[in-house]
Amino acid sequence: MDCDTCDREAVMQAAYSGRHLCEPHFCRSVEKRVRRRIREDTLLDPDATPDDPETWVIGLSGGKDSVVLTHILDETFGKDPRVEVVALTIHEGIEGYRDESVDACVELTEELGLRHEIATYEEEFDVQMDDVADEDPLDMAPCAYCGVFRRDLLEEYADEYGADKLLTGHNLDDEAQTALMNILEGDVKQIAKHFDASIGDFEDRTEQEDFVPRAKPLRDIPEKEVALYAQLRELPAHITECPHASEAYRGEIQELLWDLEENHPGTRHSIMSGYEELAELAADRYGGESDDTTNLSECEQCGSTTSNDVCRKCRLLESMQAV
């Protein structure tokens, strides 16, 4: 099959659009969509200058998504004096999984000349995810613990580095899964929080001074296209799923979306199109209420921002220590 744009052989067919693209036109398409998202979300503050640049912290896991995001951002802003980029890698302590992806992070950041920082659960919390998965004192999926710990460290270090934005490599599949989970759980305030935290235009979001704003420039790109881009660009990505991921509720939603997308191409795009409009309406309705920002205080144990006396991370760590 030939490319729709030229006479070269196509390397992919997008069922949701019917387009066939060769390697150069496919890569260009991915980059164009990411840069369009950056513009539409006003990721770069119009007031940023070389004398007063923005600091962006990228959550770099070493997987295909964060590696592709880092690569495209470097190509786009690598020589822009209005932006300073810091790559932050979180090592959860998962044997045979994270070590290899950390190697990929080191290789990429050295190649691009980026500042690279590594934080570990073991050093920060005195736990490793393999142990958490084995003991599981609260009978929850490992991802429930890991998500809390990971978000806490990303937020803590982004704040420590003076980040203006925290960027993560969530792709279209990730976002459609989150949207569907929030809808199925009927949590309208969580939907509003999702908009304010990471999917709304920065000019439209409700101000949350206690948290570093998040951005997801890959959220228009399907997961398989991210993987193909990483392969074609020969990026040092570690493409292996976490061994604990299959136990999460998200895994069920992922399989459901795969089936829907196969039978009804374009389902993920449709979900996100409607969800983003719904999320904006929810954010307008609840404003700061969506994250209980009116009742925030410092955690009595670690000092992090929380709506309770003790934050969720510390409560989970207490449950681990009680085993």
Describe this structure in words.
- The chain has 323 residues and is of the alpha/beta class.
- The protein has one domain: 3-Layer(aba) Sandwich (Rossmann fold), CATH 3.40.50.
- The protein contains 12 helices and 9 strands.
- The chain has helices at 23-40, 64-77, 98-112, 121-125, 129-135, 142-160, 172-185, 188-199, 223-232, 249-263, 267-286, 312-321; strands at 12-14, 19-21, 54-59, 83-91, 115-120, 165-167, 214-215, 297-298, 305-306.
- The strands form 3 sheets. The chain has a 5-stranded parallel β-sheet, sandwiched between helices.
- Strand 8 and strand 9 (305-306) form a beta hairpin.
- Helix 1 packs across helix 9 (223-232), helix 7 (172-185) packs across helix 10 (249-263) and helix 8 (188-199) crosses helix 11 (267-286).
- The longest helix is centred in the last third of the chain and has 20 residues, at 267-286.
- It is globular and about 65 Å long.
- The chain starts with 11 loop residues before the first strand and ends with a helix.
- The mean pLDDT is 89.
**How many separate domains?**
1
Q: Report the CATH topology name.
A: Rossmann fold
| Residue windows where pLDDT falls under 50 for at least 5 positions | none
Structural class, judged by helices and strands? Answer: alpha/beta
The number of distinct β-strands equals: 9
Helices and strands, in order, run as EEHEHEHEHHHEHHEHHHEEH
Strand content: 5-15%
The CATH architecture would be 3-Layer(aba) Sandwich
- Overall radius of gyration: 20 Å
CATH superfamily caption: HUPs
Shape: globular
Q: What integer is the average pLDDT?
A: 89
Largest sheet, if any? 5 strands, parallel
Distance between the termini: 59 Å
Helix content: 40-55%
CATH class assignment: Alpha Beta
**What is the strand arrangement across the widest sheet?**
5-4-3-6-7
Number of helices: 12
